[in-house]
Amino acid sequence: MLTKRIDLFTILGFRVGLDLSWFVIAVLVTWSLATGYFPGVLPGLGPQAAWWLGAAGALGLFVSILLHEFSHAIVARRFDIPIRNITLFIFGGVAEMEDEPPDARSEFFMAAAGPVMSFALAALFWGVASLAPSGLAGALFGYLALINLVLAVFNLVPAFPLDGGRIFRAAMWGWTGDYARATRIAAGLGRGFGAVLILLGVWNLVGGASFAGIWQALIGLFVISAAGSSEAHMTMRTGLEGLRVRDLMVRQPIAVPHDTPLERVVEDYFYRHRHTVFPVVRHGRFAGCIRIEDVGRVPPEARAGRTAQDVLPEESPATVPPGLPAMEALRVMQSRGTSRLMVVEDGTLRGVLTMRDVMAHLTIREELEGRGRPA
């Protein structure tokens, strides 16, 4: 769901940014408040004042969601759970964890922090609204109190990936001691809740409430997608537990000597083995990786006079040691935006790890364990 991130600022060590999709919801919220909500609660409100209130309400929602996510991030830091960024997007906000919480207790407190913050903000804004010196200020802070209350209650629905779903998973995890089972149940509830939202959206769409119907259906699709992603991550985490890179890598990979002419690289490696990237070695030492696009930039008539060494990219390839835990290797793949890692130890190429190798291991494991379960 996230598209392109715009970095805004850093607070307490957390980088805050906006996904481009956030501007869609900012415009929609401002428009709906200016043309519907505030004119409804303040009869006789002029158009200019309504639009100013709408923009202020959208800004207040921005700050409220940001504080909600900051509460998650601060508690996560307390439990040594790394948070990469805090990003606001079309469906709200997300504190981007580098990994799932290590235990049920940390999951519970981190998940509960968001709704607690939203309830606190609702109470604060309600108090300010009751003391506001003008109707305009009262309406604005009354809206912020209402929207924070809605955010808190909605997020407490026990459906993953909502905070309530994480709290439910933490409770199941702590009770059963089975992370995988707790995740499957919470994700199943998330898919069920998402399906209900989609059906409700279709019902509203048929009933004439087009905007509300489309919005509910989109949220339902997002919840279903996020629940599936969490279950897939759980499968990886449990399936790779205890494994290291050496257990999954391809040993003795096909490597290109550094002085191989490019015309031979094309014929003997790219065409013959049908890979798009090959490691390059120089006197038994890892020198880098040659990619098909690097060779493609050299005209065919010039390839005989150039070698693999000549077209190695300047940036260092993604490498990992053979003893690195497999899940850590996947995080390296994610951070480097690659599906292939060179396994290097003391400057020597030991193997290659690809996402395809990881997924093949998980598929075989799931097939064997699935057949081993009683029907």
Reconstruct the topology from this structure.
Blueprint lengths: L4 E7 L2 E6 L2 H20 L5 H32 L4 E7 L2 E6 L6 H28 L3 H21 L7 H14 L2 H28 L3 H30 L5 H4 L1 E2 L4 E2 L4 H12 L3 E6 L2 E7 H5 L22 E2 L5 H11 L3 E6 L2 E7 H18 L3
Parallel strand pairs: 2-3, 6-7, 9-10
Antiparallel strand pairs: 1-2, 3-4, 5-11, 7-8, 10-11
Helix content: 55-70%
Q: Given the C-alpha coordinates, what overall shape results?
A: elongated
Rounded to the nearest angstrom, the radius of gyration is 26 Å
Computed structural class: alpha/beta
Describe the strand arrangement of the main beta sheet, using strand numbers. 1-2-3-4
Query: Helix-strand pattern, N to C?
Result: EEHHEEHHHHHHEEHEEHEHEEH
Strand portion: 15-25%
Low-confidence stretches: 371-375
Largest sheet: 4 strands, mixed
Helix run count:
12
Number of domains: 2
Q: Please report the total strand number as a whole number.
A: 11
CA-CA gap between termini: 37 Å
The averaged pLDDT comes out at 87
Key features of this structure:
4-stranded mixed sheet; 375 residues; alpha/beta; 15% strand; CBS-domain; 2 domains
Care to describe what's here?
With 375 residues, the protein is α/β, with parallel strands linked by helices. It has two domains: 5-239, no CATH class; 245-364, CBS-domain (Roll). Helices cover 59% and strands 15% of the residues. Strand 10 (340-345) and strand 11 form a beta hairpin. The longest helix has 32 residues, at 47-78. It is elongated, with a radius of gyration of 26 Å. Mean pLDDT is 87; it is low at 371-375.
